[in-house]
Amino acid sequence: MLNRIVLIGRLTKDPELRYTPNGVAVATFTLAVDRPFTNQSGEREADFINIVTWRGLAENCANYLKKGRLAAADGRLQIRNYENNEGKRVYVSEVVADNVRFLESGNSGQSGNNGNNGGQGGQRRGQQGDQQSNQRFNDDPFAKDGQPIDISDDDLPF
Amino acid sequence: MLNRIVLIGRLTKDPELRYTPNGVAVATFTLAVDRPFTNQSGEREADFINIVTWRGLAENCANYLKKGRLAAADGRLQIRNYENNEGKRVYVSEVVADNVRFLESGNSGQSGNNGNNGGQGGQRRGQQGDQQSNQRFNDDPFAKDGQPIDISDDDLPF
Amino acid sequence: MLNRIVLIGRLTKDPELRYTPNGVAVATFTLAVDRPFTNQSGEREADFINIVTWRGLAENCANYLKKGRLAAADGRLQIRNYENNEGKRVYVSEVVADNVRFLESGNSGQSGNNGNNGGQGGQRRGQQGDQQSNQRFNDDPFAKDGQPIDISDDDLPF
Amino acid sequence: MLNRIVLIGRLTKDPELRYTPNGVAVATFTLAVDRPFTNQSGEREADFINIVTWRGLAENCANYLKKGRLAAADGRLQIRNYENNEGKRVYVSEVVADNVRFLESGNSGQSGNNGNNGGQGGQRRGQQGDQQSNQRFNDDPFAKDGQPIDISDDDLPF
DNA sequence: TTTT
DNA sequence: TTTT
């Protein structure tokens, strides 16, 4: 009934931008979030948390975030599950963010930028077939190897 | 660097209470948290989110929470991973809650109770060997089948 | 750049429903949120936190919430300030909630209700001049005595 | 019963560090948090939110935060009230933070620093009477002019 | 493997 | 001005 999460961490890689068959942008990336304590050998571990963003925010993330950058994500925790190729149920957890803040300006130029994303403008890309349009969904947006698509635009929560 | 989550949902089962080899109480349960939208067939789905609590809060959860009850959890999202018996890496996500609120009083009696847990009192159970002491940790506190213990008291974050 | 708050508490009074000159619904109420500790005389104090909701959510709150009911609010903390009649600047803090959960079903009937609000449907009331339409904004939506209106519909954040 | 807030913003001034009569450190500062929308004249306004931190975290904030720096605060919203010198009740809202993250390293040196505070170490300053010890509490930790102290160490929540 |  |  209520599900709200806020994270601050660093991207483990550049974001990946894909499009649904209907041309809706989706970006995925992973934040490394340091734990607030050290383990028994004195090292600080991190949680690696998958983030998904949609539409205009997805495109902003793809444009402005890079591996190593510090970012904040605000959204909801989602637990999906699917059957893998060995017929076993696999659970995937990810944060569906409706708000991402870019906490580092990217030391090359970009002055005047406040480190903010440009809100939640919901632009929808056309079917122009550019170089990114071959990136389509599979069962797990964080998986590399393509499973048949089972996420359609009808699933979109907003 | 910052990791904060708040959930409200219903328990899918009664909590499970276990103890580390050193006698520290741990309770685990799962909250069904309704999604804020319906899917393409008009049904409201839920996310099933694992919760872990420690010490006095664990014992309060075990005492006052039951299957179906409404509860709020406030904590941090943790992603653990371990190698399963087939040598494959499995990812487990869970919310380590430092605050749980009991939002239903349990319609039988219990008047005067405010629906609150009793804070974070950190009582530590002795090694009396009572009927619960055979519940020990394995790799995944949410798994039923016993793997060798790899969580010791040294891991405790607080 | 990021501002997210989640509260659970009890309403100190029934909500108040008003409308902007353009017919947009606004509900205000106060949540008493118990502090997580007791003071030096052993009493648990509470924070009394003003909540504002808009549009369809406002009307749902007015319909389903009552004095004493338990509710959760999720939103953003806003600090407004205005000059009072003595020319002094007054600061008003309130939570602008985009999500409110009704955690008690209202013991009279209402079965089938899940305790949820009906989402964020943004219905806008017409200017029919019914018995509530004389409730208009002043400087402080939580104040009783009418100051000249300075919140117009242009201020609406969504 | 539950009260959790996360903010990211910039300090409007350097933090102020004071001590209670018993030598417990308290730091106060204000975060300017941009609103997620622009007003009717196209300007982005901000909320100016008071933050209070205690003990070791207070001393870290005083040492590492400066006017203009970006920071995240995680805590609880508190609404205090007191009677001012004209016998009028004044309401003060502030976030009591148990976690503050320094999101900018302070471009001078300090390499190797992760931008994190050093946790919640609760050091307590002795009564050495150094140059800061004349900074004592009054009714409102954010007020400049001294009212008689009414916050004693007994009020400390942790 | 899931709750109302 | 405050709720159970």
Automatic annotation (TrEMBL), chains A, B, C, D:
Molecular function as annotated in GO: DNA binding
Gene3D superfamilies linked to this entry: Nucleic acid-binding proteins
Region: Disordered, residue numbers: 104-158
Keyword entries, A-Z: DNA damage, DNA recombination, DNA repair, DNA replication, DNA-binding
Comp. bias regions, Low complexity: 105-114, 125-136
Subunit-structure text: Homotetramer.
Protein name: Single-stranded DNA-binding protein
